[in-house]
Amino acid sequence: MKNLFILSMFLVAFPFSRIKAQVEFKNYKLDTIFANDTKNVGLFFPEPIQQGIAGSDNFVLTYNREKEQTFALLQATPGKESNLLVISNSGAVFSYIVKYSEELQNLNYFIEKSGSIGNVNRVVVDSENVKIETDLLLNAEIKPSLNDRLYLDKFSSYLLNKSATSAKLRKRNEKVILKLENIVFHKEYLYFVIEIQNRSAIDYEVNFLKVSVKTRKNGKKKSTQSLIMDPVFKYDMPNKIGVGETARFVYVMPKFSIADDKLVMLDLNEKNGERNLKLKIKQRFINNPN
């Protein structure tokens, strides 16, 4: 409930003389969405998602941050209940209570437009017909200054300008080496400092580098579930690494943690080639960043 509390305090302190856009609030009862760490819960919104925020670290909402889509996945680890706030590209606001549950009765939620509690440009309040104007206050709360690409660019550059350290993890395939140099936690983000070395006699062209969380299932039939996580920012991501060259770059991810039965996978895929690499990152590296 952290976001709602901060918003309430902001409204009390905000000077009415600076009001520009009308925002009204109405009384409502939040629906509850249940999730756990063994299944993906699908959320299908009526409009493409612009932003989504979970109020607690034990809930992870994954959606495409580079290309707006209507689909998101929710996972949870055991812990206290929290809240989930989602804004569509039209400004519609959707708010829910989220709880961890070992047993899930519903794996897919199809959300109607009527499920919106309002809009960031015009949200109705019923409490005493109070009308407060604010310069897109909800957007300011949901989009912290750290989302500014200039800041992410500056901090990523700082990390790369530091002296390179010995890689925590590495994977090799045909003289192409993928290294995880560092994972740094800074103000709600995880910065993955990554290096690709090309010691082969052929240029290496990058098709993609994906980050995913994999759940390892034990038993007679071992299997894995994979949840792709999109970075919020990429710094100096190379398209090609020439012969004898080394490329260092940064992937910026929203902060997250993983349970014992999970790991993070870096999946590097070569364009028009088969020198692909998969680098496994275990829980201790993700949950204990620098």
Q: What is this entry, summarized?
A:
By secondary structure, this protein is mainly beta.
Question: How does the SSE layout of this entry go?
Answer:
Layout: H1 2-13, E1 22-23, E2 32-35, E3 41-44, E4 49-54, E5 59-62, E6 71-76, E7 82-88, E8 92-100, E9 108-110, E10 118-119, E11 132-133, H2 137-142, H3 149-161, E12 169-173, E13 176-186, E14 189-198, E15 204-217, E16 223-229, E17 233-235, E18 240-241, E19 246-254, E20 262-270, E21 277-281, H4 283-287
Parallel strand pairs: 2-8, 3-9
Antiparallel strand pairs: 1-11, 3-6, 4-7, 5-6, 7-8, 8-10, 12-13, 13-14, 14-19, 15-16, 15-18, 15-20, 17-19, 20-21
Explain what this protein looks like in three dimensions.
The protein is mainly β and 290 residues long. The chain has four helices and 21 strands. It has helices at 2-13, 137-142, 149-161, 283-287; strands spanning 22-23, 32-35, 41-44, 49-54, 59-62, 71-76, 82-88, 92-100, 108-110, 118-119, 132-133, 169-173, 176-186, 189-198, 204-217, 223-229, 233-235, 240-241, 246-254, 262-270, 277-281. Strands 2, 4, 7, 8 and 10 form a five-stranded mixed β-sheet that branches. A five-stranded antiparallel β-sheet has the order 12-13-14-19-17, with helices on one face. Strands 15, 16, 18, 20 and 21 form a five-stranded antiparallel β-sheet that branches. Residues 1-26 and 122-147 have low confidence and may be disordered.
